[in-house]
């Protein structure tokens, strides 16, 4: 059903007026729910494919999903063709998908178009059968029709979506008609954060804040230009939001380039109130922490581990400790670990044992039909090691920039491998032993690609 809204910000504030007045105090702490990836006797593995729009690999033709049992997912004699037989996940462009921890539910918020911002939930019943359950709700009044959202690891209870808007601030020195003596002061970044009750399809809370950098950074033209990937800390009382910085030339107020990349930053909010924003900075990693399509930070063993991107020294995995500050003694550099230059983390996911599968590219990646070639690595957060998974075949057209999801079952992680427009397979990585199992065949379509398993 098409949902139309007028005066979105006013409606959002009006809708939440009462709930904000009664928001939980800073002393309120959610009951901690440990993120556990149980081993299931059997579970669904949902595969998603992004159909070509105008160009190979753009994913703008829509998203199709198809579910198989984990036994079939591991069977190379099984063939899966989501592009012919899959369920169309509602979205004008590539859908932003999340799954319950047991794989039985798919959560979707459509991206852009008339239905942009609509939240729907589906029970997975196998094959192309995804049965809508619960009430559809739109988060567009709060964060727009192209929301950046994620499922928090709190037992499938809550989702969170974010946005940022920016405005350059110029001192006109009292002569608004004469711009010759105007002086740039800073760029104001206003963030919006909404939390969504995934169970009851309801808005929990919405807050807006102006989030500032240091006075020196702002005077030099730096500002927060994009945010994404909210993550709960282990105590459940803080929400971390990844950030990207941009810069203008203070003399011209035009976009700058070739500037010094600052230490990686994260916005920290009280949770569940979403109040009291602060910004923390890493001295180990530099570059962005907002990620792209895939979850960029995960809680493990009491800390949050976060990937960064566009780091001049190659992507790092950074660590935020229980004191809600970066642990700058934890130095995990992917260039060093993998023996490459310019490593760039595209997506990653740890199992409960602290070992993860990570998708990446680097300066030596081939230039494929849709972009730089991607690879997978097995990562150990405790040992700070990363090893390329050679058992998975690679191709110059193996494109992972839009990769979204990994399915986790105990220590096993399921992933998809297929070059743009070519067939491939599901692969299952036992993160404890490093054993890799080649699974079901993935049947592709012209110009299309697979964006993950859930």
Automatic annotation (TrEMBL):
PROSITE patterns: PROKAR_LIPOPROTEIN. Keywords: Signal. It comes from the Bacteria. Residues 1-25 form the signal peptide. This is DUF4374 domain-containing protein. It comes from Polaribacter reichenbachii.
């Amino acid at each position: 059903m098409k949902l139309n809204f007028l005066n979105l910000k006013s409606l959002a504030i009006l809708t939440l007026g009462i709930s904000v007045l009664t928001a939980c105090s800073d002393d309120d702490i959610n009951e901690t729910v440990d993120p556990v990836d149980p081993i299931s006797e059997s579970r669904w593995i949902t595969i998603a494919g992004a159909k070509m729009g105008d160009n190979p690999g753009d994913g703008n033709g829509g998203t199709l999903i198809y579910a198989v049992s984990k036994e079939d997912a591991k069977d190379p004699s099984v063939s899966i063709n989501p592009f012919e037989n899959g369920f169309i996940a509602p979205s004008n462009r590539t859908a932003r998908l999340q799954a319950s921890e047991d794989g039985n539910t798919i959560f979707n918020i459509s991206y852009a178009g008339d239905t942009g911002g609509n939240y729907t939930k589906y029970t997975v019943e196998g094959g192309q059968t995804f049965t809508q359950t619960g009430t559809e709700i739109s988060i567009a009044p709060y964060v727009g029709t192209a929301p950046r959202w994620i499922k928090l690891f709190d037992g499938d209870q809550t989702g969170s979506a974010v946005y940022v808007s920016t405005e350059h601030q110029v001192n006109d020195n009292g002569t608004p008609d004469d711009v010759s003596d105007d002086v740039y002061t800073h760029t104001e970044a206003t963030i919006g954060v909404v939390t969504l009750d995934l169970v009851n399809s309801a808005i929990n809370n919405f807050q807006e804040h102006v989030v500032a950098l240091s006075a020196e950074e702002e005077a030099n033209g730096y500002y927060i230009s994009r945010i994404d990937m909210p993550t709960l800390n282990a105590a459940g009382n803080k929400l971390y939001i990844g950030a990207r910085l941009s810069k203008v030339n203070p003399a011209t107020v035009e976009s700058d380039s070739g500037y010094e990349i600052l230490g990686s930053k994260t916005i920290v909010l009280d949770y569940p109130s979403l109040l009291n924003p602060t910004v923390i900075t890493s001295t180990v990693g530099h570059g962005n922490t907002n990620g792209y399509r895939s979850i960029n930070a995960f809680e493990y063993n009491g800390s949050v581990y976060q990937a960064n991107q566009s780091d001049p020294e190659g992507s790092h995995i950074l660590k935020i400790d229980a004191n809600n500050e970066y642990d700058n003694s934890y130095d995990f550099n992917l260039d060093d670990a993998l023996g490459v230059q310019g490593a760039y983390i595209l997506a990653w996911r740890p199992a409960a044992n602290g070992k993860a599968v990570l998708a990446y590219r680097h300066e030596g990646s081939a230039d494929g039909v849709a972009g730089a070639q991607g690879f997978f690595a097995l990562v150990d957060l405790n040992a700070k090691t990363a090893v390329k998974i050679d058992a998975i075949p690679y191709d110059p057209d193996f494109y992972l920039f839009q990769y979204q999801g990994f399915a986790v079952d105990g220590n096993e992680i399921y992933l998809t491998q297929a070059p743009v427009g070519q067939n491939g397979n599901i692969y299952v990585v036992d993160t404890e032993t490093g054993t890799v199992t080649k699974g079901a065949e993935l049947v592709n379509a012209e110009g299309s690609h697979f964006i993950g398993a859930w």
